[in-house]
Design brief:
alpha/beta, six-stranded mixed sheet, two-stranded antiparallel sheet, 9 helices, 8 strands, 14% strand, rod-shaped
Length: 336
């Protein structure tokens, strides 16, 4: 672990927020960087930079800790931040930093129009808005008239440090190249001062120990957060599986209910078929009974007619038996 932290300390450059803070505490460096960021302000002097200054908008509000905070001779407020990782919250983060910085710009009893201007500046080791720009300058504007800027004294400036577009002036580009550890012109006075300051920072044993303690804390914190995220992920997965199980159970219940409906419908159809069959059987029986009764009437009528013609009984029985296909017993029943 110590060897890892030692190498990390040795390799750390301006893109490391701790190194950035310690370097930017240098008055001359901080002043020159602000001049390169905002050349039109013609900043002559600033207050001694303060790092890790904490502000709270309200007693119960989330506190914000600025990386580098200072003001100039005109009362303008500057917050300079090094943003190493993209947590996908840069817009909301800037909003809160600007709110905290702006609160310092309003003195008690001072008219609103006399409030100082505030600048929040972010150096990002990623493209903060994924739009390919090297520098983003943010102001409020009217939606219906986008070119109309609202002069409220607030300005947000974000630099996409890895960008190679070179859209900024050469002096500003040199500082961005230093952060990105790209090749820079050694004769640039700021570059010389930055290298000297970084050497001083790296030789400072107190800062080195603080950096290592902070790195250990951050790694522990990252591990805890990782475990928390993993636990939250497992909980989410468990909830999703439980929800999916409930859906499957509900689906099974629905299918069972549908099966019961189909079974009842089948039983109803079977009963209806049985009732219709029973009705048909009864109708057939009635028809057969009627046919039998009609046949009996015809046979009886035929017997009576042949008797009336004085035909003997043997001949009558023979004639009736052949004509109606009757058995001897059935013929006998007509003579009982």
């Amino acid at each position: 672990m110590n060897e890892f932290l030692r190498k990390k300390w040795e390799m750390a450059g301006l893109a490391d927020d701790y190194i950035f803070n310690k370097v930017m505490l240098d008055y001359d460096i901080c002043l020159e960087v602000l001049r390169r960021i905002l050349p039109d302000l013609h900043i002559k002097k600033i207050k001694l930079p303060n790092n890790q200054q904490e502000f709270a908008v309200a007693p119960d509000a989330k506190a914000v800790r600025f990386d580098i905070y200072t003001t100039d001779e005109q009362g303008n407020h500057y917050d300079i931040e090094m943003q190493v990782a993209d947590h996908h919250n840069i817009a909301k983060r800037i909003r809160y930093y600007q709110t905290a910085s702006s609160m310092e710009a309003y003195d008690k009893g001072q008219p609103y129009e006399q409030a100082d201007d505030s600048y929040v500046i972010f150096f990002c080791n990623f493209d903060p808005f994924q739009l390919g720009q090297q520098r983003y300058v943010l102001h409020k504007h009217i939606d219906e008239i986008p070119e109309q800027i609202i002069e409220d004294g607030q300005t947000d400036i974000l630099f996409n440090v890895p960008s190679l577009r070179h859209d900024v002036d050469p002096k500003m580009q040199a500082f961005l190249d230093m952060i990105a550890q790209r090749k820079v012109e050694a004769t640039d006075p700021l570059v010389v001062k930055l290298k000297e300051r970084m050497a001083i920072v790296k030789r400072n044993r107190k800062w080195r120990s603080e950096y290592m303690r902070r790195s250990v804390y951050e790694m522990d914190q990252e591990m805890r957060e990782k475990k928390i995220r993993e636990g939250e992920r497992k909980i989410r997965d468990g909830k999703l599986e439980l929800l999916e199980g409930k859906r499957e159970l509900q689906k099974g219940k629905q299918e069972l209910l549908e099966g019961k409906r189909e079974l009842l419908e089948s039983k109803r159809e079977i009963k209806e078929d049985q009732d219709r069959l029973k009705e048909k059987e009864q109708l057939i029986q009635e028809r057969e009974q009627k046919l039998h009764e009609n046949q009996q009437t015809i046979i009886k009528t035929s017997i009576e007619a042949m008797k009336a013609l004085n035909i003997d009984e043997t001949t009558i029985k023979k004639e009736i038996k052949e004509k109606f296909n009757l058995s001897d017993k059935e013929i006998k029943d007509y003579y009982c």
